[in-house]
Amino acid sequence: MHVVFESGFFTSAPVRTALIIGAVTAMVSSVVGVFVVVRSQSFAGHALTDVATTGGSAAFFFGLSPLLGFIGGGVIGAGAMDLIGVERERRRDLATGIVLGTALGLAALFLYLDTTKGATTGATQQLLFGSIFTVDPSTVPLVLGLSALGLAIVVLINRPLLLSSLSAELTRARGINLRGVGVLFMIAMAVSVGLSSIAVGSILSTALLIGPAAASIRLTKSLHASLMVAGVLGVATTWLGILFAYDSFYWVPSSQGLPVSFFIVSLIFIAYLMSGLPFVRRRFDRPPRANSAGASNQASIEALEVGA
Amino acid sequence: MITQFTPDSARSSRRIAPRVVLAYALVFSTALCLSAPIDASASTKSSVIVAVGAENEYANVLSQIGGEYVKVSSILDDPNTDPHTFEASPSVAEEIGRAQLIVQNGVGYDGFMNKIETASPNPKRKIVVAQDVLDLPTDTPNPHLWYSPKTMPAVASAIAKDLEKLDPSHAAYFQKNLASFNRSLQPWLRAIAAFKSKHHGTPAAVTEPVADYLLKAMGLRILTPFVFQADIMNGVDPAPEDISLEEGFFTKHQARVFCYNQQVVDSLTAVIKQTAVSAKVPVVGVYETMPTPGYDYQTWMLDEVKAIDAAITRHRSTEKL
Prior knowledge:
The complex is a heterodimer. By secondary structure, chain A is mainly α. Chain A has 14 helices and no strands. The radius of gyration of chain A is 20 Å and the shape is globular. Chain B has 14 helices and eight strands. Chain B is α/β, with parallel strands linked by helices. Chain B has helices spanning 7-15, 17-34, 56-66, 90-98, 111-119, 130-133, 151-166, 171-184, 186-199, 212-217, 226-234, 240-251, 267-278, 297-314; strands at 49-55, 70-76, 101-104, 126-129, 203-206, 221-222, 258-261, 283-286. In chain B, helix 10 (212-217) links the parallel strand 5 (203-206) and strand 6 (221-222). The model of chain B is unreliable at 1-5 and 39-45 (pLDDT under 50). Chain B starts with 6 loop residues before the first helix and ends in a 7-residue tail after the last helix. Helices cover 50% and strands 11% of the residues of chain B. In chain B, 41% of the residues are buried. In chain B, strands 2-1-3-4 form a four-stranded parallel β-sheet, sandwiched between helices. The chains are: A mainly alpha, B alpha/beta. At the A-B interface, helix 1, helix 4 and helix 5 of A face helix 11, helix 12 and helix 13 of B.
């Protein structure tokens, strides 16, 4: 037993908080991530992590909860991207890139002000690369509530969301407000990015958003299976990462352990690589097929049409 | 709008070429002028010595020794900032460039000073580095040297020596100030000795090593592992094992006092402080730089000792001096 779980793993308060927050945030990120990958919005997802950084750094500077800063920044960034035109195919990358650059510039300003005028230490490290073992346990209810909100948005709009990413004309023909769906989804993305910023840091939250989703879409055919596998992969990599980080304290004598975010992101990368192996795919009992989001789009639209 | 590069636009760009060249030449020559060195010695011909203390505790001792013949300023004196992450601004660089005498800590604590000093060389400038005065190696793990009772007497006499070289006519004045500074340290040194004789071996917990030299001089036993202290000091996340260990010092009532660095605060140290408060372990605030106004180096150090003594003997917290 002690080979896998070093002593005190199950009794440690920081570990318990980390396991709860890690599981919930990984689940939301993975589920939202499946839609991000299907809608080919990975770049927008990454840009949201950068605006979340801005919000987080502002929160540090003004002494507010970083979680609220991450999410507030993300929501404002989502609004800005929508205004500039993230939904219009041709201007999308441009709008995203411009918002991203401005946001990181603002983050630089807040971090500078914070280190020179404020008393907080290690804000940069904590902000960018996360600090799951040092989360204040009293924020757990807030994390749970926000996770429920993020999941609720996606569940509520999952059909128009999928349909609009496949065919805008078809969606409009059904009388669905395309822009409204887009904005709602961006808010769900901002919430999930904000939550995973707590776990792995704002810069690395992209990995948790699209990594498990990309791996699961390679392995599965239907939307429901994708969501299931992505959730399981997200939670498993996060929990394993926490375990490795805890155990790493004992790997080298008198060491201080290695960072959690490093382990989580590496495990996601390994999971993604493995999902491409023919052996693993055969295990999922399906013939190998094109691993693009397009293939699963096709599968999803079929499922949708059957369901409708 | 992206301009297509066509033979047409190539012709038009040839037409404006002289103007472009002129503009570039103007920018280039302006940059050249700006890069010329500025003569720093011009403004310091008066009899008052311009001196800089990197941290305000060193600046304070500097002005106690130099008295009316030095004009002292300090770089780090804001009790709300963390000196470890300080970044120098151009005005600070100018201040340091003008100084004839500089006192700094060393051990990498104020590395920005070395950068600015190399950037504005002045062969006549004297620099007192506490690390060199105490003959400490650069990899000394705890840089907060001014909390050690051995540091300031040695630094003060090095300051007096350099002041005499810069202004030999007032050598007696500087010597007199040095003697009275050393005398004024006595109440602090006596308080340390008195505490040590009564409470030797009393266990204490800390967030980071800021006051460790003083705590050790007072005979306190520091429970917190140094790795944890260094992590907090350097803004790195400590291991969960160390966090549980630290909180255990309070929940298991092992520590009898908790020295909390008021200048290096994050969400983790705030939670740990809360643990100490709810376990009714008295908290004593310690500082990277001298709290102002109202303190000089001696009274600040004496009050830290008094606060720790009050925590042990009367179970009283002094979160802020």
